Amino acid sequence: MTVQIVQTALEVGLIYSLIALSLFLSFSILNICDLSTDGCYTLGCAVGAVCTMAGHPILAIPAAMGAGACSGFMTALLQTRFGIQSILAGIIVNTALYTVNLAVMGFSSNVSIFGTDTIFTLFKGLGDSEMWKSWYKLILLACIVFAAALFVRWFLSTRLGLSIRATGDSPAMVRASSINPAFTVTVGLCISNSFTGLAGCLIAQYNKQSDINLGTGMVTIALASLVIGETFFGRGSMGWRIFGVIFGSCLYRFIISLALRLNVPTEAFKLVSAVIVAIALIAPKAKNMIMFSRHRRRALKSRAGAALKEKGERKNA
User: Fold this and answer.
1) From the centroid of its chain, how far is CA 79?
2) What percent of the chain has pLDDT over 70?
3) DSSP, res 209
4) What is the C-alpha separation between 88 and 250, in angstroms, rounded?
5) Phi (first) and psi of residue 272, to 5 degrees
6) Distance between CA atoms of 201 and 137, rounded to whole angstroms?
7) 171-196, pLDDT tens digit by residue?
8) Continuous H helices in the chain
9) Which sequence spans correspond to the domains of the chain?
10) How does pLDDT run across 272-302, given as a tens digit for each residue?
11) Greatest Cα pair distance in the chain
12) Whole-angstrom Cα distance, residue 249 to residue 226?
């Protein structure tokens, strides 16, 4: 692998880590399966591209995050007010967002922003050295992801954040504590989807284009990153879990880069993603089975040795 491939994998992995953080909030903390991630990611990408084309690359970030929060609000509204299951609510919103995303892009399936300033080109202008010009994207993305991780860590330690965590553990207990679970679910999904919108905006400015099919499979990618992080780092402290999510996203991109180097056809990438998720899910179970098998063999050897020793003592007696 060349330095350029590793650098690109880290850059894209950091962008995808924002989606993994979104799924961490909705899936791991709130225990809600939000399938609107694909459409929300494309929504952030479309809004970011349109705002950047209008000459507002920095304003595109809060605009995309706001659009993502609106998507999360609609998903939460269907769940909390109308009693629709989380999976169905996500599917409904994801389907509706396809038309919304087309409308945002002027009913065009692809929008190009080549030749327009982005936050990356603006950040690049802060330095003149060759090293800066080579690594400015990675530095900017690392700062954004670090700030997002700090915010998630701080927010989940606040009173509202603790209420959201409690809602994921036991909604009945939260309701008995005079806390409205509908409110905590809504806030959690709004924040979660705002990170997805942010990721979409960043990838639009990174690739300098927005495509209607860009968000296809984002749930699988985020789930793979989440599972990989929890497999390597377990369920320790909150800060450790958040770091694991980011690490899992970067490792996932390294695996995809390796697949590219091995000339795996792009048509098989979805299969590669599914295999990665399956291996990450199987790994803890396989590890426990191997450890159990080792303990069993040791116990059998110990019993066999004790039986032989006892037999020898009887002969001598």
Assistant:
1) 22
2) 98
3) E
4) 30
5) -60, -45
6) 14
7) 888 888 888 999 999 999 999 999 99
8) 3-23, 37-53, 60-80, 86-104, 119-124, 130-155, 159-169, 171-176, 181-207, 218-233, 238-261, 269-316
9) 3-214
10) 777 877 777 787 778 788 888 888 888 888 8
11) 97
12) 7
